[in-house]
Amino acid sequence: PAVPGAAMRLAALLAALRPVLPLVLGLSLGCSLSLLRASWSQGGGEEQCPGAAGPPGARGGGARPEAADGRPVPGHEDFRPRIVPYYRDPNKPYKKVLRTRYIQTELGFHERLFVAVLTSKATLNTLAVAVNKTVAHHFPRLLYFTGLRSAKVPHGMVLVAHGDERPIWLMYETMHYIHQHFGSDYDWFYIMQDDTYAQAEQVKALVTHLSINQDAYLGRAEEFIGGDEQARYCHGGFGYLISRSLLLKLHPHLDSCRNEILSVRPDEWLGRCIIDFLGIACVSQLQGQHYHTYELAKNTEPEKEEEQEFQAALAVHPVSDMTMMYRLHKHFSRIQLDRAYQEIQDLQMQIRNLTSLTPAGEGGLTWPVGINAPFLPKSRFEVISWDYFTEQHLFSCPDGSPKCELSGASKADVSEIIESALEQLNSRYQPLLRFSKRQLLNGYRRFDPTRGMEYTLDLLLEAVTQKGHSHVLAKRVSLVRPLSKVEIIPMPYVTEATRVQLVLPLTVQDLDFVANFLDMFAMNTLDTHDNALLTLLFIYHPYDAQRVGQVDVFAGVKAMVGELEKRYAEVKIPWISVKTEVPSQVKLMDIVSKKHPVDTLFFLASVWTEINMEFLNRCRMNTISNWQVFFPVHFQEFNPALVYRGEQTASSSTDFLRDGHFDRHSFAEACFYNSDYMTARTKLAADILDRDEVLESMEVFDVFLHYSGLHLFRAVEPGLVQKYAIRSCNPRLSEELYHRCVLSNLEGLASRSHLAMALFEQEQANST
Which residues belong to the signal peptide in this entry (predicted)? Predict the structure, then answer.
């Protein structure tokens, strides 16, 4: 009887262990295999155990051989990393580590290509100008070198004049100048003459495929007259590339080459110098890349040249005149454009073929093929609206008016789009049909940030058949101007260490807000030792100016300034008194400008501004001398009586930009350098002559907008928050300035929803 019970218990135990049996078997098998592998790896008869006798430095476990001092044995490059502990000698004084301006400098990065163009007195205003107009904008950096003294530089060109027109001396000085000023900044140096046409994009593509770690002298290799057949120099007429490493090695020998090598041609002289002192000859092929050239014959027609050698040429020489330079540029630009269109078609075909294999299938194919799909809004607030236009008018104007004349860039844009639509229609339907435009019925456009500018056109067309029959029809077409390659605009280097000079104009109406301004200035700049100074500008009315001896309306402000100077002994807050009935911003700035150095960075503030370090740093970074001025758009809080209606205001730091708006009508705040203001002000004075009344209708923004070639950076500034206050609008200012001030006060009351709620509550109160 006990046997069946034991069998049942065993069956129950196996049933309980069955889920974990695969895990137990896997662990057992893994341990067994690991033990077998360990026994095999230690079973070699030629290896010694770790404790056995052997040569010094020998280690078990297959480690790499090392010498007695721990260094790797030559021939073994399998280096293992080791941590070098930081140690500073306590006996030596500590020196602060100075970081570089840019991370690429610290990491040793260099720009890719520098181009030098050799020109002369006879060709500076002809061929050199043609080079500058055709290919200069394609190269990242291009300089012109000449032997003229005090040469007049054509517009848009950077010229280096050496003062000696001897060809050898010009080449020597050019190489020396390139090494001295650009030798540590670029990897490749391309030297060409002004009678050479170079395909800029092809030259840039060539250097991207070449290694910078090799001494390279690449161009059209030519034999020396009567010299060694193996020694070759690069013909200067077709341009040549020199690597940075070769330039660094060549520079110490330039003086010796100038004194010892006699030659008539500068390219031969340079080639002989490189060969004699470095042993490197010119090559036409390097690292699998060919430097193709083409020698242009007289009376050549570039449009009719069909030779493969001409089509693939990186450089063409000699170019006889400017017209030929422009014809060559047009021809090669057409070739590159055709190649680009063909590549686009090939890529679109590949996308169509691969789309069928995706989960979405052919339904996921967007139009145009290869362009991002249109933006899909997630709510009604994200819908991108369309702007309606005709050939004469635009119905969405920048100034907010419902209708304005189509002009300038917008008119050129519409004309180009219509022309492109007709071209596409004719290319698709010819020779069966030929279309011509009768009228643009409707036009719509919108900017989609994910893909570009989209257009929808309703065109009234006349279609003509091959037999001459015509028919008028309306057709809707859709076009897209896609976003092209993003270009990073180079900007001058600026720092956050620049001193900011705050200028605060004050009138009698501003006295109630001065105390808060000075408190915020002391807390955010003086207590933090920020590099900022303050100058007050007291604007007296003529009546108050006459009574200043008995009653000074700004006596309280001057007392507060005195208290600040006592609290901060190292701080001085000067003030300037001005008597005027019309406080023109330009006239006031003229007075302040004359009392400060030209390199002063001004921040023109208002009494409602709450100064903070975050904004001052942005003022420093966004203002660049002789390049850019900054006009921030402050955030204006709404009237709390209308927004909260007796409720407690939001005190959360995340809601400080909620109940207000960015006041785009105000141009009171500005950051600019004194030198830039003085330059623009000089041009303004020459324009208005002695008509000072014109200044009453202008602001500092207008001075920079109309009389300077600087960038005007106008952007919202969340760090510049102003409490609600009714601004006093002077009716003696110009109509535009007065209207802008009134509009700023009205829009600063509250939002439309708050105003609607206030009106609703008022109507309810009146009805009861």
Answer: 1-22
Return residue ranges of the chain for CATH 3.10.450.10: 387-482
* Whether the model pTM is above 0.85: no
Rounded Cα–Cα distance for residues 539 and 559 (Å): 17
- C-alpha–C-alpha distance, residues 324 and 583, integer Å: 60
Number of Cβ within 10 Å of residue 726's Cβ equals 10
CATH no., domain 500-646+656-755:
3.90.550.10
State the span(s) of the chain assigned CATH 3.90.550.50: 105-331
Domain 387-482 architecture: Roll (3.10)
In the block, tokens 């069909």 appear at 306
Tokens representing residue 604 in the block = 């023109």
Going from the C-alpha of 102 to that of each of 106, 460, 534, 619, the distances in angstroms are 7, 57, 32, 21
According to CATH, the topology of domain 105-331 is Spore Coat Polysaccharide Biosynthesis Protein SpsA; Chain A (3.90.550)
DSSP 526: I
* SS3 per residue for 300-338: CCHHHCCCHHHHCCCEEECCCCHHHHHHHHHHHHHHHHH
Cis bond before residue 583 (omega within 30° of 0): no
Respond yes or no on whether the N-terminal peptide bond of residue 505 is cis (omega within 30° of 0): no
Write out pLDDT tens, residues 122-175: 899 999 999 999 998 899 899 999 988 777 888 889 999 888 888 999 999 999
Cis ω for the linkage preceding 318 (within 30 of 0): yes
Q: Could you report the per-residue pLDDT of 332-348, keeping only the tens digit for each? A: 999 999 999 899 999 99
Q: How far apart are CA 391 and CA 311, in angstroms?
A: 41
Q: In what order do the strands lie in the sheet with 293-295?
A: 197-198, 315-317, 293-295
Q: Which H/E stretch holds residue 675?
A: helix 674-688
Q: In whole angstroms, give the CA distance from residue 136 to residue 156.
A: 10
Beta strands in 156-299 (DSSP E): 159-161, 186-193, 197-198, 217-219, 221-223, 232-234, 240-243, 285-286, 289-290, 293-295
Give CATH 3.90.550.10 domain extents, the chain: 500-646+656-755
pLDDT tens, residue by residue, 671-711? 999 999 999 999 998 888 777 777 877 889 999 999 998 99
Element (H, E) at 29: helix 21-41
Half-sphere exposure of 336 (CA within 13 A, CB side): 13
Q: Which residues pair with 601 in a beta bridge?
A: 500, 673
Dump pLDDT digits (tens) for 274-330: 999 999 999 999 999 999 999 998 888 888 888 889 888 999 999 999 999 999 999
Q: In what order do the strands lie in the sheet with 240-243?
A: 159-161, 142-146, 111-118, 186-193, 240-243, 217-219
Q: With helix as H, strand as E and coil as C, how does 91-134 read?
A: CCCCCCCCCCCCHHHHCCCCEEEEEEEECCCCCCCCHHHHHHHH
